[in-house]
Amino acid sequence: MASRINTILVVGGTAGIGEQLVRRFHASGKKVIATGRNQARLATLAQELNGLETRQFDITDFSTLQSHAAGILEDFPDLDTVLINAGIQKSFSFFDPSSIAAGEIEREIAANLTAPTLLVQAFAPHLLSLATKGTPATLFVTSSALGLLPMGFWPNYCATKAGVHALALSLRQQIAFAGEEAKKNFNVVEIVPPYVDTELDKEHREATLAAMGENAFPPMPLQEYIDQFFKALDETETDGSLKKEIGVGTGAMVVQTWRDSFGKVYEQFGMAT
């Protein structure tokens, strides 16, 4: 990982997993640009982490998303890594209309799937250009173990994360059509976290755990997850490329299950995954 990642943009870097990734990449000597909606949190991070660059914007404001991306590429032409991590999670029942408003469902889809797709569209050409010229380039997208193993407590969240999983697969297949240099130098890495102790589910954690009853399981401590993430990140392939997925805990289990099943089907079709 060390030689491959030099300048990294972390989209959604002001809380939870995103913030800790910002801190760890910065501590390892990388040039880091962090984005988020909360300017106060960005300012605090910049004050704590010397040399950290920040950009404040809302990824669900689609009218400005492309201009923000263009501005980042103009300011950081050597950007070789983009990590798309922002998202929200809602818990509701389709059979109880009072449990969520239609607008909240739309907002969750916008943050978790539409925005990542538009961000890929904005940054992929730049990363492909680097790769075809021989510079390693990396795009991380954060899905979830729930994208491959959905649970009814979070129906829309699971569906959007399944979409991110499909997005990563589709992008890899398009890269495979772009030539040998692109295939060698452009890595798409799907981050597949388990249930991690962050603010993501703060609105509904107690109610969800109560509904699970004796089957409830505790979240993984955030720092434990980050430690395991970076351990897996350093376990590169023999050619120096990064793993196609970084799964931890349940995330690792569902990734291996997918690789051993649907991954084999793709292999039979001769398609990149």
Automatic annotation (TrEMBL):
GO CC, any one term = membrane
Q: Which UniProt keywords apply?
A: NADP, Oxidoreductase
Provide any one GO MF term from the record.
Answer: oxidoreductase activity
Q: Where does the source fall among the domains of life?
A: Eukaryota
Q: Which Gene3D superfamilies match?
A: NAD(P)-binding Rossmann-like Domain (3.40.50.720)
Name the SUPFAM superfamilies for this protein: NAD(P)-binding Rossmann-fold domains
The record's function comment reads: Putative oxidoreductase.
Write the protein's name: NAD(P)-binding protein
- Origin organism of this chain? Karstenula rhodostoma CBS 690.94
Q: Tell me the organism's taxonomic lineage.
A: Eukaryota, Fungi, Dikarya, Ascomycota, Pezizomycotina
